[in-house]
Specification:
- It is a single chain.
- By secondary structure, the chain is an alpha+beta fold.
- It has 4 domains: about 140 residues, no CATH class; about 140 residues, no CATH class; about 60 residues; about 30 residues, no CATH class.
- Helices cover about 50% and strands about 10% of the residues.
- The chain contains 16 helices and 10 strands.
- The strands form 3 sheets. A 6-stranded antiparallel β-sheet has the order 1-5-2-3-4-6.
- Pfam families: DUF4388.
Length: about 400
């Protein structure tokens, strides 16, 4: 892999990254647009480090936003790290301000969001050099580039759908609280209140501490439920009307068959073409049915989830949303709270929980009723070694 430099209009990230991946390039990718400059460090098909000049992407700010560190301590630690000439993340770990797994989690989250955002840039400058900074003292990262590229393309498609529904950043909204049965999270209620007060799309996207994609997901979720609609919307064109009718028929059939996830997916396609009262109502019904079918099982596991450490490098099969929900579950008081406040929506969040269970990153502890009482014990509380009930490691000499 050789040094190259060009414009993002010709060398977009979706073109450059597969080349870096196929050649297992080692070096630094600099991506610049206006005042924002980001650096991504690659080695052997992995992202091993990232840097940015944007204040909101500073590690200290990210730690505060994620609730890992409070702002005063983050500021004091930064000054101390500067004096000691030690990388900020490594200083926080060495001084036991932040545990190593939480630091790696924050650094990976920071790197993912910066990396995904660059896929939306269609102007600016991109440059790859063969040099790598010294990363010996820094907290090590090893993120598979193939998984990052896959998730970045999915995120870009998600933004495209969002912009098709909400085409202008100056758009304002009509609010219909009665259309969602009052089932709003705190974050959704805040967005609706601001939209009702006349906030534009740009103002709503910039209104929270969460990344813009999470705010966009909440807005899209409210739109699909019929609780929020842009003032000026594009309805189906003449050529699309027949297709919309066919999709609605398919969605109704899926609902009758109990295939609620399929009904949701098809209804989402309809609503991408414009608001349709029947589609909004069907989306709400499918979401409620799917949530009842899937989430009740998960809610019964409250207090029984055991979290395994995330392996390094991370399995490529895990998506960015899976990792987001893993962190959300660890920091929430209950599974219900985590699922209902997840930016992806309850249905998608429950599916993500099942993927985490399937990979073994989350395990279910046995309930008290499932634990067999010990019938016979020796004076020290153990089952006698000769007993048939004794486990293998006790029976063997």
């Amino acid at each position: 892999m050789e040094h190259f430099k060009g414009s993002l209009s010709h060398y977009a990230m979706e073109v450059v990254v597969p080349v870096l991946l196929s050649r297992r390039a080692e070096g630094t990718l600099r991506v610049e647009r206006g005042p924002v400059v980001r650096y991504f460090f690659f080695r052997g098909g992995f992202l091993v480090g990232e840097g940015s000049n944007t204040p909101s992407e500073h590690l200290g700010q990210v730690l505060v936003d994620l609730g890992i560190l409070d702002a005063p301590r983050a500021a004091l630690a930064f000054e101390a790290a500067e004096v000691a000439k030690v990388p900020y993340g490594a200083f926080l770990v060495h001084q036991q301000f932040v545990e190593l797994p939480r630091m790696v989690e924050a650094l990976e989250y920071k790197a993912r969001e910066a990396f995904f955002d660059c896929y939306n840039w269609d102007s600016g400058e991109v440059e790859f050099t063969l040099q790598l900074p010294s990363l010996e003292q820094a907290v090590a990262l090893k993120m598979p580039l193939s998984g990052l590229h896959r998730d970045a393309l999915a995120r870009r498609r998600e933004w495209k759908v969002f912009r098709d529904v909400f085409p202008g950043v100056d758009a304002t909204f009509r609010v219909f609280r009665e259309h969602a049965g009052g089932r709003f999270s705190e974050e959704e209620s805040v967005l609706m209140k601001r939209a009702d007060a006349g906030a534009t799309l740009a103002e709503l996207l910039a209104s929270g501490k969460e990344p813009r994609i999470f705010v966009a997901r909440r807005l899209m979720h409210l739109y699909r439920r019929g609780a929020l609609s842009p003032q000026r919307t594009r309805g189906p064109t003449v050529g699309e009307a027949t297709q919309v009718a066919d999709l609605m028929e398919a969605a109704r059939r899926f609902m009758q068959e109990g295939r609620y996830d399929h009904a949701l997916a098809v209804t989402e396609q309809v609503l991408e073409r414009g608001p349709l009262p029947e589609a909004h109502a069907l989306y709400r019904a499918a979401e409620v049915a799917l949530t009842l079918a899937v989430c009740d099982e998960l809610f019964s596991l409250d207090g029984r989830l055991l979290f395994e450490p995330l392996p390094r490098p991370l399995p490529v099969s895990l998506t960015a949303d899976d990792l987001y929900l893993y962190s959300k579950l660890r920091g929430s008081a209950s599974i219900r709270q985590a699922l209902r406040t997840a930016a992806m929506g309850e249905a998608a969040a429950s599916r993500s929980v099942h993927r985490l269970l399937a990979t073994g990153l989350i395990r279910i502890a046995p309930s008290l009723g499932e634990l067999e009482p010990q019938r016979k014990t020796d004076p020290y509380g153990f089952i006698p070694s000769g007993s048939a009930e004794a486990p293998a490691w006790r029976r063997q000499v």
